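Changelog note: in this version the structure field was regenerated for every chain. One regenerated record is shown below for reference.
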Amino acid sequence: MSCDLRGASLVARAYAKINIGLEVLGRRPDGYHELRTILQTIDLHDEIRFYPREQGIELSTTDPSIPHDAANLAYVAARLFAERCESPPGIFIDLEKRIPPGMGLGGGSADAAATLLALNRLWSADIEPAELHEIAARIGMDVPFFLYGGTALAVGRGDEVYPLDLAPELP
């Protein structure tokens, strides 16, 4: 697939999520648990700036405890996306962390999904939603949800996502 630069830079927001309900239905043959959960994005978000560069992937964050390499899900997303391109352009990712890590809010997964969507646009790749979903599922269980956001039912390992039109009223 051909990937060419479309724009100079892009700013994206990666919104956190909460689990409205979580049902663990048992262990699957692949070692994961079968889940059923309703996920909801919330206003809390990371801000990510994407700057094209000649080649390679570079990532910086405002939180020194967050990895700047292949241990970071946004970096992983950029690498997996670049693997789909015949000769991928480079990208500098500047990640302003606002979602606290390790709190179950999905910050890393949200950053990965925002990276996939941003590179699809920046690199004029026009990857279909089903293929983006497949890449997202390789990164992590919550990542496919963040391609859609809003309210959704997630089943399986959490990677099967069904957007819902209901907006729950929560205090």
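Spot check on this record: The longest strand covers residues 33-53. The chain has a mean pLDDT of 90.
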